[in-house]
UniProtKB/TrEMBL annotation:
Residues 220-370 form the F5/8 type C domain. It comes from Mucilaginibacter pineti. The lineage of its organism: Bacteria, Pseudomonadati, Bacteroidota, Sphingobacteriia, Sphingobacteriales. InterPro entries: FA58C, Galactose-bd-like_sf. This is F5/8 type C domain-containing protein.
């Protein structure tokens, strides 16, 4: 009898469980997709490439051959772009144009021909525009030196690498009359132009990439090359008034490239005017002279002249007076003198006209122009 009751109890429990499961299935039947959901292969390894008011989205094709299109969403799904998936190729890409300058979160879904989609994949990127452009600084040119052979050496200042400066571009006209562009890495401290057309100048600007994935370069405006300093390695002193004995006092120190040496005229055996005549080795158009007192020994020697004068010549025979100028013998550093007529000359003569003592002590001289 107990066995019959036990079997009956088991039957009642089984019937109750079956009834409950049947009701549960009926409750959730409306939410069940027959055959299950189908997901297409998702976008693989997506990247966002920044640009000028645009962003390029790219990802690897993946292994799902059923994928025929994709959609890229941004601005919280308010904007989207449909992308057809070509039958061949390893990478899928799309360009999103006319974007405001800011960061974006993009969502990519792929689709097959039946409308089944992949799980969403996010990628973050930014576009750049006038705000970024406005903060870019041109890498300065500290000096430009031209030698007797016409080779131009550009000495660069510091580049704005924190904002993505990676190169300087130089635009110039070559000896054949062609406009040329040369690009130099910001890692270079100096650059050379070997074929500049005589009598012409150059322009330069700085090239930026805001980040390593940028598809666009950004440029500063062109700046003029400015004055050329004539290379003193080509210079020779062919005449001078006097020099004091000893290598520390020689007249060649006047053109050795530093104001830390000195030309000392003969002390006790010379008087004003004192002069030095320089052959630059080639005819140039002179627009300025630069003159320094010496910083040798005392850190600044006041025995320089108060008045100086320049003469220029093309043949070392006929000389043109370019004027008398005041020189401040109490300060260090270069003092520049504009030559109004911009004379053509191969030779020039520096003259110390008057000063506090009979002898004269000078540091350095430079000439500028084209």
């Amino acid at each position: 009898m107990k066995k019959i009751l036990h079997i009956g109890l088991i039957l009642l429990v089984t019937i109750g469980l079956y009834s409950a499961c049947t009701k549960m299935d009926a409750t959730y039947k409306q939410y069940v997709v027959p055959g299950g959901l189908t997901y297409t292969g998702k976008a693989t390894s997506p990247k966002a490439y920044s640009g000028l008011n645009r962003i390029k989205i790219a990802w690897l094709r993946g292994a799902d051959p059923s994928v025929v299109k994709a959609k890229i969403f941004w601005n919280n799904f308010a904007d989207s772009l449909a992308v057809d998936i070509p039958p061949a190729g390893d990478t899928i890409s799309a360009m999103i144009e006319n974007l405001d300058e800011k960061n974006y979160t993009f969502v990519i879904r792929t689709y097959d021909g039946k409308g089944n989609s992949s799980i969403p994949v996010e990628v973050v990127g930014g576009s750049y525009g006038v705000k970024y452009q406005a903060q870019l600084l041109t890498r300065p040119v500290n000096s430009t030196i031209i030698n007797a052979k016409g080779v131009l050496t550009i000495n660069w200042g510091g580049a704005d690498v924190s904002n993505g400066a990676f190169a300087s571009e130089v635009k110039y006209t070559d000896v054949a009359g062609n406009v040329k562009y040369k690009t130099f890495s910001v890692d270079l401290k100096t650059s050379e132009i070997t074929d500049l057309k005589p009598g012409t100048n150059y322009q330069f600007r700085t090239i930026f990439k805001p980040d390593s994935l940028s598809i666009d370069n950004f440029y500063t405006s062109y700046s003029g090359g400015g004055l050329f300093a004539f290379d003193k390695k080509d210079w020779k002193i062919i005449a001078f008034s006097s020099q004091h004995p000893g290598s520390d006092n020689t007249v060649t120190n006047f053109i050795d490239g530093t104001d830390a040496t000195r030309w000392h005229s003969c002390a006790g055996c010379s008087s004003y005017p004192h002069f030095a005549t320089i052959d630059m080795g080639v005819e140039r158009t002179i627009t300025q002279f630069g003159v320094w007192r010496t910083t040798f020994e005392t850190g600044g020697d006041s025995r320089a002249p108060d008045k100086i004068q320049f003469f220029t010549s093309t043949d070392n025979v006929n000389w043109a007076d370019q004027g008398i100028f005041n020189f401040n013998r109490l300060i260090n550093g270069e003092q520049r003198y504009l030559i109004p007529n911009n004379p053509k000359a191969r030779y020039f003569k520096f003259v110390g006209v008057s000063g506090p003592e009979n002898n004269m002590v000078m540091g350095e001289i430079s000439a500028y122009g084209l």
